[in-house]
Each structure stands twice: as structure tokens, then as C-alpha cells.
Amino acid sequence: MNCSRLVMVSLLGLLLGWMPLRGQEVRFGAPFDFPLYLSGNFGELRSNHFHGGLDFKTQGVVGKPLLAIADGYISKVTVTPGGYGNALYLTHDNGYTSVHGHLDRFLPEIAELVRQKQYAEQAFAVTLEFGPDEFRFRQGEVVAYAGNTGYSFGPHLHMEIRKTATNEPIDPLQFYKDKITDNIAPRATRIMVYGAPLLSPQGGKVLSVSQWENLETNEMSVEKKEPSVSSPLGGNEGGLVFYCWGRISAAISANDYMNGTHNNYGVRYVRLYVDDKLVSSSDVDRFSFDENRLINSWADYAEQRTTGRWYMRASIAENNELRMLRADEQRGWVTIDEERDYHFRYELEDLYGNRSVYRFVVRGKRMEIPSRLPNYYYLMDASRDSRFYAQGFELWMPQGTLFDDVELDYHVLPSESDQAPIYQLTTTRIPLRRAAEITLPTHKSESVDDSKLYVARVDGKRRTYCGGTYQYGRITANITELGSYTVCADTIAPKITPIGSTSWRKQGRIVCRIADAETGIRDYRGTIDGRWVLFKYSSKNARLTCDLRAEGIGPGRHHVEIKVTDMRGNVQVVSCEL
């Protein structure tokens, strides 16, 4: 046989032997040994982020054994007062990492290492990392126990699946479609239509908001896998009709649903067609953590912050690179320039192919579009660095901070007589792609310590802490949205409230509530007889808890001291005898 032919045959044999392995379908086992139901799905819209995994119900209890979903090793554990609480990271041999949050407890050998780390760092919140040969496991082995720790408001398991190489979360539901039943289509509740800033008579204001009623009737089409041929509310003539002219966009509020639960979920696929042309679409299949803040541009940010409702916009801002979004050459905007009916159609679909279709009409009605040029002194250009000065106030936004160009509506508003003025940048809250820098004159009283001053976002009578550094009569802070801001001073120490102190010894634990009314808790420290001991902190209920037996505190008198510090350095200390 010819030598070159021998090499070719050998390489072909290697290729054919390799291809089945490369194309092998990735499979994951169930995290529990009981029927699976979800309380949350991947990509749900949350404040400043997407939900990164699936929330599995645990039959209303904590302590259910968590099973490894594939072979691999424990690569990391974290303990935090909020967020995931007790979390376990499992790196699998198939190229994925699973993250399991809100756990009640770890395996004993892991728990002991966590405790040693906490005492070594004298901190409740810790992170431990492990190598591939330290804690290996096989699929189906118990690796921890589900719970309700961290920012969790009921027993459940938060589980993510990430690509190990990129740490990028993907939708885990694709691996569990055979274990979770779903034949219920997504449903919409509201539609909103907007005018584009400076390019419509409405100048970017909401044209109309309509709500679909009777969602359980045939007045809308809900079908599985097949296209819809009907429209909601008995047809377009008696249905939703908007009268518009110029450049507009739409947004929809919708949820998905599943069998056997009363929960609602995020919608995997949303598509908007105008006159049967696809204008924009979304596929919530993956995201990177760097993309989380981009949710604020996809959603109607001001509406969500005001009413709590999530609207998914069809239009995509110039600086929104969220990969799950697609749009036509107008980036999801539609130009209404003919006096006719424009037929809009929303299609909502889940991962199982359950689909619902909603139709409405935008009727072109000629209106005069005001010929208005923006005030370029107040115009912040999203494509370049932007800086604004006025009356000792300064706003600095590097290129890439804004999603779109913004024209400021700057005013200095009077506040109550004993408080600093309010600096209004915009009348509505506008999200930023990344943090901007704001500097305000302090107008401070000589009696106020500089270190107590901070920048606060103003929402009516509410003041939200934004931090800040004082220098030469001004204070500078980072902000993540445009709105209104002022300078405040926090001189009040946190509050420590013992709970059931008369029965601490009998119950074997110390329980306190800690709170700070203005800037929030920065840190805390608990000692018994002058020795640091572990106090566990839960941010969801502001509880500090010390297990006396676990900490080796025996009979007799003991001196307890708890020290809490807020974000402006105010300190409160409570001492008592146990």
C-alpha cells in the first residue's frame, strides 16, 4: 500500500473514532430523587440582572439531599449573608460547572473546612476553592442539602449550569425537558407603544398602554407549535388600535407558566412582526455576567421602578449589545408614515414549543412632527465622553456609559430648609450602561463631620445611599442611573435589638436584629468573653445568630459584646451578661 494512502486511511480512522465523542449529547441527572417542579426559570427579569438558573421546589422543606447531576469535583464553596447564601460549585468532566445556591448545609468534611476558614478570617462570609483531586464525586451521589439561606424567601434550590471555560450561564431547562411537564403557553397581560424622542409628535412619551382582558377565552389565540390565524379581542376592528405618526416602538409584558404550579416564569422567545416582517426578537438562552446590567435597557426601566411591571422593549438601544436580542435595520423601531393600518403581531413561545399570538393595529394618522433641535449644552452623546458643569455640580460619563443619547433636564430644586438642594438631571429614572461620576457641592454645616456626608438618590421623600468621598467642599460618588440627587449626612449609629434574650441560654443561641435606617450595615463583630465567635448573618431578615453549643460556650456566666458599624462609620455596641 502506498505510504501516503496509509497515512490518509489512518487519519480517517482517527477522525471517525473521534467524531462520535465530539458530537455526544451532554446529559445531566436530576438534582433530587423526587418529581421536579420549578418556582423560577432561567433568564427571568430581575432588578439589574437576569435570573441565572432554575429554582427547584423542595416540597416546602429544607434538608433535602442534593444529588450530583454529573461526574466531577467540588471546585468552590461560598458563604454569604445574602445572594446564594451557602453555595456549592461543582465542576463536571463534561465541560460544564453547576452552581447550587441557598443550601442548608454542606457535607461534614466541607462544613468543617468552612468553619476553619471563618475562624481564620474572623468573618462569616468566606470563599474556599478546591482542586480536581480533592473532593471528587459521581453522578447521583449526595453532595449537600437544599435549604433557604441567603436571599431566599422559601425553601428551594437555585441551580445554574455554566460553561466552565467562559463561566457563562446557559438555560438548564434544555437538559430537563423529559423530567418537567409543560403544555401551557406563555401569556401576555399588557402592551405599550412609545414614540421616539424628537422624531414623533409625542416626543418619546408613552402613547398608550392597553391590557388584554379575558385571557382564558378564545379572544386570543394560544396554540402549540402551530402559527396562529386569529387575533385577540374578537378581531382587529374591535381590538387594540393605536393612532400614531412618526417613529414608534412597542413593548410587551408577559409571563410563562408550567403544569402543576401556580408560579409564573420568564418567556424564552418573544418575536414582533409588523405586516408579517420580523422586526425584533429575543431568545433567552444564555448571557454573560457582564451583560446583566443591559437588562435595564431592554426593559422599560422607569416603568419597572415605578409600578414593578416588566415590559420587554422591541427596540434596541444603540449601546445595548445584549446577545439574546435581535432586530431589523431600524433596531426594532417602526416608521409610521402612511395613513393606513399597520398590523403588529407578537409571538410568545416557550422551550417546549407552546406558543401564543397577540395582534393589534397601529393606524397611521398624520400629525405634525415638531421641528425641534435639542439644547446641545444639555445633550449627552452616547458615542463619546460627556461632561456637564453647572453651579458647582459636575457629571462625568465616559464613552459607553449611556445606552442612547440623553438630553438632560437639569434643575436645582429647593429642599426642606435644613437640607441640601436637590440636583435634578432627568425627570424620569434613566439607567446607565456602566457607572457615571457625580460631584455635588456640600453646603454642609460646620458641625457635621466630613466622613458622615454621602450622595443620595432622591425618589419623592425616599433617599437611597450612593456613597461618596468628600474633598474641598464637594462630594463625589458613582451612580448607575440618571435622576435626582442630593447630599445627606448620616450621624446616627445602627440599632441592635436583642430577641428573646431571657431564653438565650435555654435555647442555646443568641439572636439579635441589626438595622441601619440610613446608609446600611457595613460590618459587624461578636465576641464572648473577649473571644471572636461566629455569628451567622441573614440579610433577608437582618438576623444575627450564634449557636452557643457549636461555639463551645458552656454553663456559667459569660460576657457577650456585639459591635455593628454602618457605611458612614457610625458604631453601635451592645454588651450583656449571658
Brief account:
By secondary structure, the chain is mainly beta. The chain is 8% helix and 42% strand.
Describe it.
The chain is flat, with a radius of gyration of 28 Å. It is mainly β. It has 5 helices and 45 strands. Strands 1, 4, 5, 6, 7, 8, 9, 10, 11, 12 and 13 form an 11-stranded antiparallel beta sheet that branches. Strands 16, 17, 19, 20, 22, 24 and 25 form a 7-stranded mixed beta sheet that branches. Strands 14, 15, 18, 21 and 23 form a 5-stranded antiparallel beta sheet that branches. It has 4 domains: 38-175, Glucose Permease (Domain IIA) (Distorted Sandwich), CATH 2.70.70; 187-364, no CATH class; 379-489, Chondroitinase Ac, Chain A, domain 3; 495-577, Expansin, cellulose-binding-like domain (Immunoglobulin-like, Sandwich), CATH 2.60.40. The longest helix has 20 residues, at 3-22. A hairpin with a 2-residue loop joins strand 27 (386-390) and strand 28 (393-397). It starts with a helix and ends with a strand. The model is unreliable at 1-23 and 213-238 (pLDDT under 50).
